[in-house]
Here is the input.
Amino acid sequence: MAFLIRTIDYTAAGREIVRERTVAEDRIGVGRAAENAIHLPDLAVEQNHVTITAIGPDALKVEAVGTLGFGLNGRTTQAETIDPREGAEIELGSALLAIAREPDGTVSITIRQAESREGKGDALAAFQLASALPSKRAMSWTFAGAILVLLLSVPIVTHLTRTPVENDPESDMPGQVVFDAAWSSGELSMAHHDLENNCEACHATPFVSVQDATCLTCHEELGDHAKMPRLAAGMPPLSQGDAIQWRIAETLGKEGPLGCVSCHSEHEGPVRLEAASEQFCADCHGDLDTRLTDTRLGNAHDFGKKHPQFRPTFYTRLGADKPMRVSLEREPVERSGLKFPHDVHMDRQGGAARMALSLPEYGAPLECADCHEEGPEGIGFQEVEMEDACESCHSLVFARTASGFRSLRHGDLDDFREDMASLSRSPRPQLGGRRQRPGEFARGGAYYSDFGRPVRGLISVNNALQEGGVCAECHIRTTTGGRPDLVPVNLPDRFLMHGFFSHKAHEDEKCTDCHEAATSKAATDLLIPDLESCQDCHKGASAVKTSEIVPSSCAMCHGYHTPTMPWKPEDHPDLPEMPKDNIAARLGVVRK
Amino acid sequence: MATKATNRYRLDEKRRDADHVSFLKHRNWRWLKLALLLSVVAGLGYALIDQQPRPNGGSWYGYTLGTVGLVLIVWLSLLGVRKRYITTGNWSLKAWTSAHVWLGLSLIVIGTLHTGFQVGWNVHTLAYALMLLVIFTGIYGVYAYATLPKSLSSNRGEMTRAQMLESLTAIDRQLDAAAQPLGRSESDLVIAALEQDVFHGGAWGRLTGSYPRCATARAIRRMPDNASGDAGQALERVNALLARRSEQLAQIRRHLRIRAALEIWLFIHIPATIALIAALLAHVVSVFYYW
Here is the structure.
């Protein structure tokens, strides 16, 4: 076996010098000692470092002589068998011995000096991920800078440099501040949806919370619940946490727990403001008299358990200028100036019923609705018009004319006197023909209208206004300036002014279920149902709903800003309520 | 004197023991307990305190949680400064790191309750999302540091990184010599393989271990299996060397992959932390600017 040993050196000019020699041995030594077939003058190499032995046609055994190993294909090893056809590279000190097989079958060992390892450190650094990614510092500055510029500086600068405009609820002008949509913590309520892109409409001054005055630029028509000092005095003490928060907040310019925004919290999504809870009202009204000692309002915290008796507003004296608000506890008497026994009219067997049956426009005994017509809101009733509601029976006809009958004008005594004065002096015609009516319908009976003797108009006027005269049938007589007169009629079309009652919502009930009209013998009976009759069905918000019991929170009848009716603008859309299925809402339920 | 020496020995022994306890278990899980206590108290407060009109960052409890969260975040991020000064004792870096991990985890509870579960496309939720990103990359980091170094060293075998590269260089030199008799197209394949940067493929390649543009793999695929005469012998050698090169590359790439998995979290954790601090600043300022 022969080894072809090829040594490659370089001249100073870089030219390659190749020397070849053949060693015809099966085993050659490599080392610093001169007797080795391959002599490497390198102090890093042992005297006798490695032996290379041919152990077959295609196998060379490479062994370290001493304990110091050698590099083979980049790894350090002590002994290895290599196949010259595949080749290998032995590294000893600074020398590289490339082993290969020549085309003629001899094994060649090419010796060259390893190139200097410049840049090795750089190559190792490339193992770090940092070499394949932008630096952490650069990324940090980029992200932080982008956030601070786009999401903080741009909105602040454009807010400070904008031209303030006055709020106009009719316009949906977008705001001038750029990128402040990113500051919005949630969608606005439906009512304020048009302001979604106009943050500065409400957030007018930097670091100053939304002010009541700003709300009032659009909501100027909305009423106060009470005057601010009284509201503040009536409020229960805050919890410690709330008190601390408000103390800090007020120091920083927030308007306190009675400002608009403390209830009307925005950015809760496209929902409408929920009606205040019973607890919200009861916080103050449950024991209001302990803080507002001069209040005329009774304490209330739960309609089923604690609510003051109703105090309807009506006329307590005949011909009074102003109505009075009196509690039903005092069994008040109404002085409307009318005589009107409901029972007579509502008796289904009585004369009124029979008369109604005989008249084509009724054809049936009288119903409440024949005289009382609901108001447009379903809360109160329209004024009862004598001509529409009464005249079919209580006829005002006083003369026959060529074209038919002539009726008295109702409502003003001067008109009445004028009509009567114009009455012809001829005898009064027999309206009912020749036959006399029987019983109560006969002359002198309750249903006989006596205008007096028509031949003398003025006497007729007096007679009509006399006891037993046609006017006095329903009206109460009086004297004004020595002349006979009638007490003016004071009949409110709404009695409960500080809460709203919807007749529409009670359509399934009969009127007489609540109003004791069928047994009322006189118009002085105030037919407003009392608290207890409402409480038959309506209990507080915490009551369990059944077919008879309606849990009723304060908001069913009372509004905060508009006590007399639910506040509802004309174009008020139906809005979704606050979500009830999120985690916060569920926890709230559990807590309660 | 003797007593003192004994005490000194005991103290040193205690310190030596402590040196081998994981920072997670530091002082018998002290910071885990504290973080759990903090989370439970925050949760109970959220459930029991009636916040009107609904719980969110604007109620007094929300402000409280927000302040606690802000202070925690700022303090946690100061680990980056603190870690550059290694000390022992009560405020050792180990204690600090333990607190960093456990209190950082409790921020999930505190931050989430601070939001009142209200999220949207805004700077407030951006801060919350960045906070979660930082926390979850941190969790991954603890996991990576606990498990990956073992596989890194088992992959290395006996070799250092420099040896891996040298081995490749040795193979390349032989490949260059062996390929001399090859024709043009085969030579080009070898040249492409030799010229390609060992570390090509970028961060994505490192993380996934997928190198679809690997020239060595392509050379192996396209190199003819055999040819006649001298060229046939050379081809055989070249194929064998290419296979060796591919193996060596695979080891290097496994190393790169484990190393990338070990380091990637910091490339998110740190920039996201700084971005989080910026977003927090924007969050706090914007909330009070548009109060």
In short: The radius of gyration of chain A is 54 Å.
